[in-house]
Write a structure and sequence with these properties.
about 200 residues; mainly alpha; Tetracycline Repressor, domain 2; elongated; disordered N terminus
Length: about 200
Amino acid sequence: MSDTEEPAVSARQEGIVAAATAVFLRFGLRKTTMDDIAREAGISRQGLYLHFASKDAVFRRVVEDMLSGMRDSVRHALERDDLPVADRLAEACEAFHGLTVGKVELRQFSELLQAADAFAGPRMSGMEREFVADMAQLLGRTGHAAIWEKDGISATDLAEHLFAASAGAKYESATVEIYRARVRVATRVVTRGTD
């Protein structure tokens, strides 16, 4: 393959992954077929097989891309010095938990999460721990955790609370707007309006 062909293949695979993501979120893993993915991507089934050997291979790529994108978005949100800390935390929580809010039914989400856990479980758990640690570091570095120390609450306790609140809001919110409102309350409580 020449250098000029590689970007086209990459762009085609990105298009397939984007299409497959939409189909998996709509139907779940079990009900999705390679025909569904090909149709959504606007290519033939044979064309799809030129890029991915199986539905499982497509699903793995979807999960890997989602995890990489999530990690990058979380880091970007936490590093935004142009926003108050409460907003940075809310944006990071949405990057981590908000991707599927209002886009997938709980039944499909549970199936997809279980399937992803089978091959990416350790990575997902590691990302959760890393996210909590990054939030705790931000709360400590900005002095927000110090406000809670007299109550015996550490920066890690606060970050774990925010993580749990965000995860709960994901399952309890029918729309992204409802999710955002709930998470913003949690981030304002943790930062106690000190921004």
